[in-house]
Please model this.
Amino acid sequence: MKSILELVKSDVKVSAHERFIVAKNFKKGNAGIYYLGGNFERLFCDKIEENVPSATLSSHRLVQSSTLGPIKAELGEGHEIFLAWLFDKVESQANGRKGDLLVDGRTNIFYVDGCAVLARRGARDGWRIITEEISDPDGWFMGSRVFSRNLALESLETPEPERV
Model:
C-alpha cells in the first residue's frame, strides 16, 4: 500500500512539564490563540497533565488528501502526544514566525487521547485549535503537517540505568 505520509523532520524537540493545566494555557488571546473549538473545550479544558516528559516528535507531510483514520493507522502505535507539547509548539510560533508548525493556513494534525487536534494559523487572525473525531468523514488536504511521538528515538535517547 502506498504511503500517504512523507517524513519532514524526525527531531522535533518538546519540553518536559511537571504540571500542565490545559485551560490555563489554551485560551483565546494566549500564545496567539484566536479560536478554540467547542469540542476542544469540552474534551480537554478540564484536563491536567502531570509529569509530562521531554520527547522527540516527528513531522510528516500529507502527500495526498485523506481522512483522519488512515493517517492515524499509518502512524502506528505510540503516536499520540500530550497537549503540553502542542502548546509548546503553538507558543513558540505565536506571532506566525516560521518553525516546526505550518503557519500559512494549512493544518497541523496531532493525535491526543483518541481524537485529532488540529491547529491552523491564518495570516491575519492567529491560531485556531479544534478537535475532530477520528471517524470524521471530512478529509484533510495534501500538504497538511502531521505530528507524532517518536518512540524509537526516545528509547535511543533514554540512558540505561547503571548496574551496581
